[in-house]
């Protein structure tokens, strides 16, 4: 639950020179400003790996390997991140004891401290109560669900007795009445206050830093006429839109796996843990928010969505997977057998059955093809036509002819329309339609859909100066906030987030937060662009306006294609109005330039 502070990591990283460290493993020779050596990460015969003393990074221009001193040691010695940090600490003369002491919780606002303290106490009380006689029936229920003692300890599962246990305990610990009610654990009554949770199995909810901020209580009796789950109300420390269950414990496993499972609830996370998977988080009954996306982006850009198999769950899958894709994530969708959830799948088919089902993931487009088919009356011509209309834009946006042929074949088989008709349909939409951001794999920014060199250069140069200047990053956030290239867009979001807690950005420290090799590789290339070191305000404005113009042109193209497809004259007029407004803004931008 503890973490190593960013300040401590930066201190350790800056205590050594990357040239000295890498040079102790492979020969380096100075060439110009940098050092070059044979890359140890691919079959290299000519020195293709550059090591920058100025930026404290390395980059291979053949295989793309790159990073800072920690990354090099991890990949070269095949060790974990923490071990690499400890090695560098020892090289830099920072005692290991000091390193261990650096694991501290983030500082807590004094006004919030009582709320965190009460939740910690509640965690202990509930956990103890489960092991006592009063929690016997709850334990028996958990045993029937194959929740072992090891799982109970791992997830700190507890039991809330059918009495005011917390109220009494908090009183003995001298918490005041107002703070008890602020916590959400105690409810104000007409005669006296009382515990919110009674006679329920309790599952703690943690924030991203590993602090308990709430609970979810589950009934365990079949004949009990109450909601199956009761969650803590939102409070000053618990906000559903900022909380992903198990996030704090999923970090390392996600970075190792390269992707994360997005699930419906905590029982699904526990099911995956029982099957040996820890790279999983669950939503707290809400759709994905920007805060959720920010948390996920810190770990990975590849998300496997596996929500409930019922109608509501599949609607949520479509909604959340689309949100992820629009924000530059690589999305895969998992549909479990017979509409079951992961917990039910584990009970029905065992560990191997669950793992096999999780491995059978599909693209977001394939999920859409199946979802719209299952929710349409395909024996009705109008609905068959509407089915094709739903998918035509996605099909037209596919640039790879093999992909397009494959998905058109799927749609043809399900809709009954010939592939020729479908080709004609999407040709009318625009075969050269730009690739929409519903399924952009963040593998390499060079594999992004075609971006004219003028605009690509503007995005690269703007990112370069964002890495150098907090002010430029702030200008991007306020005036633009968007880049067409999906990889660049993700990097820009990372930079903006980084400057929220830092005044300056060192490349060697910044890449620690990226996690993905593809993002690190792109940042290293952008950081080493040969551009003037001084930030020119007019040039920055030109970059922003160039990107804005391109964005407006693409938006206008999309709207014109949408208008061409639209049959409703009222909606057609509305779209035309939007197009006119967009063209006006574009002309205003041209006038500025």
TrEMBL record:
Residue stretches making up the Toprim domain: 258-339
EC numbers for this chain: 2.7.7.101
Statement: the UniProt record of this protein carries the keyword Transport: no
Keywords linked to the UniProt accession: DNA replication, DNA-binding, DNA-directed RNA polymerase, Magnesium, Metal-binding, Nucleotidyltransferase, Primosome, Transcription, Transferase, Zinc, Zinc-finger
Cofactor note: Binds 1 zinc ion per monomer.
EC class of the enzyme, as a word: transferase
GO aspect biological process, one term: DNA replication, synthesis of primer
Domain of life assignment: Bacteria
Record Pfam families: DnaB_bind, DNAG_N, Toprim_2, Zn_ribbon_DnaG
Catalytic activity annotation: ssDNA + n NTP = ssDNA/pppN(pN)n-1 hybrid + (n-1) diphosphate
GO cellular component: cytoplasm; DNA-directed RNA polymerase complex; primosome complex
PROSITE patterns recorded: TOPRIM
Zinc fingers classed as CHC2-type: ranges: 39-63
InterPro entries to which the protein is assigned, alphabetical: DNA_helicase_N/primase_C, DNA_primase_core_N_sf, DNA_primase_DnaB-bd, DNA_primase_DnaG, DNA_primase_Znf_CHC2, DnaG_bac, DNAG_N, DnaG_primase
GO molecular function: DNA binding; DNA-directed RNA polymerase activity; zinc ion binding
CC cofactor: Zn(2+)
PANTHER family in UniProt: DNA PRIMASE
Assembly behavior: Monomer. Interacts with DnaB.
General function of this protein: RNA polymerase that catalyzes the synthesis of short RNA molecules used as primers for DNA polymerase during DNA replication.
Family of this protein: Belongs to the DnaG primase family.
Domain notes: Contains an N-terminal zinc-binding domain, a central core domain that contains the primase activity, and a C-terminal DnaB-binding domain.
Protein name from the UniProt record: DNA primase
Lineage: Bacteria, Bacillati, Bacillota, Clostridia, Eubacteriales
